[in-house]
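Morning. Coffee machine broken again, so started the prediction first thing and wrote up yesterday's gels while waiting. Chain of 322 residues, entered below exactly as on the submission form.
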Amino acid sequence: MDIPKYIEQIKKTFGITNDYVLAKKLKVSQPEANWFRRGKKTPNPTTCIRIANLLEKNPVELLIVAQKDRASSGEKSHWAMALSAVDVMMNVPERPRYFPEKVEAIGQEIRQLESQMLSYQGTVAHNEASQMMHSVKSSVDSIMERWQVWKRDGSLFPNYLLANQAAIQRGVTIRRAFILSRAQIKDESQVTEFRQVLHDQRRTGISTFFAFREELEPSLTFQRLASDFKKLGVNGDINAALFDDEILIFSRSYVERSLGIHGTPIPVTMVDQLDITWNPDHLRELNPSPIFETRYVFEYRSERSFNTQLNRFKRAQTRSKK
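Came back before lunch.
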């Protein structure tokens, strides 16, 4: 409980030595003053504002502190974050312009917390993905149809891959499944890039898997996953990762940017919108982990093992056309 700390500040500031005088100062009954002082009761908004005025503090600070004291153990961290944000907002300088913009972003995150989903746009989305990897403790399960972001000229290479490597060195287990389509297989350059992505992932220590979309798509597991993502407005590729079975990130859309002012621009595929959710229903419905248990997902152990499955898939596709 934090309110008793403010009560002690009032007693010290005004030289108060007993609950009778404290009650008169707070304009409450003597039993209430005693309860506030001992953390047995949380003051109402009017009393919070009165405490703030006595200590020459922003009333919002006391209102949030009171909410934090009332909150359940699982919600206290959210109110603590809100209190930190308010403290920043009250002391943020107008220049450099970066600071007010940063505070505005914090405020937006706080407003989104109630919905149990945070949304990020553009380059900020990539930064948030890296931050998620820094905080993971035990496991990450991921499915990636838009595997191009992992290419050596892709937007997740090398920073996010290095964050993966650091997590593995901390003892985190990472499983990631990449999906290759029949249309992509027709382009040998894309197949070569896909092999390179698989190789880079495995070399980093990630348990790397692959699948062919036309084989995986008919499975009930994939169909349920695709349907649940579609309900949330994801109509394209499925790209999601579950961290520690408690928080999930997924890409809602992608955009291609041109990198370079001079010479031939380099096309870079980037996440355009990234969502982060800890809603229990979303975690249950959007969990990519069951994908790894299907017979259509193969672990990448070497280029040879990949080529074996690739050739098998090509033969199966040829037979299906006859």
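Strands lie at 117-121, 139-144, 173-180, 207-212, 239-243, 247-259, 266-277, 298-299. Going to sketch it on the whiteboard this afternoon.
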